[in-house]
Amino acid sequence: MTRKRPVIGILSYGRNDVAVDNFLYDEYYASPAQYIDAVRRAGGMAVILPQGESDLRGWLTLVDGFVFTGGTDIDPALYGGNLAHPNLLKVSTERDSTEMGLIKAVLDDGTIPALFICRGMQLLNVALGGDLHMHLPDVKDPDIHRGPDGGWTVQPVDVDTSSKVFAVMQSDHVKTYSGHHQAVNTVAAGLTVAATAPDGIVEALEIASHPFCLAVQWHPEVSAAQDASQQNLFDGLIAAASV
Question: 123-161 as b/e, with b when 16 or more CB fall inside 10 Å?
């Protein structure tokens, strides 16, 4: 009998986060295709999970693992931030609520693997009681985490060789695609720093006691097709979901 391919739930963007040029519809639950491509290359089956689901524990019986994706800013009210910060991007209350609830369900389960990317890492930290730098240019000069246009830049990251992130990526120094203006500030209890940027910004977190709960601030899906260290994060997720 052929073994079932692991099913990986990829959290969608919020209902109004993505503008699609279609005069028939105004709202979409969407996901960048690169997340799906990376999961498929790793041997998994990808399904997009739309925000707003009420039966979050039902998702745990539907899929074998999760990818918490990047996206817009987290509501500052969730971590004691400044709701009037001039550089705050539009928040998605539905997405924050859904993903905070799902993080609790995943951690309560204690076994289902999850990979948290960019916004996903920030939300994991907030869900466990940490907070964020609301705008990196406020605290770091120069800002190495975004391009001049606010989009992608390639930045170096140093990985702790004793970490699970290193064990999965098999590299202690990687070049990563980043495009974020926020980052982890105070690390929540229960999380361990696994990688940092040259300016000291936290670039990866993990839960040591969990079989596979890894979080990275950068976007491995962007370069995974060409960079084995980045594809390894998705391969590791699929391997953990296959157990």
Answer: bbbbbbebbbbbbbeeebeebbbbeeeeeebebebebbe
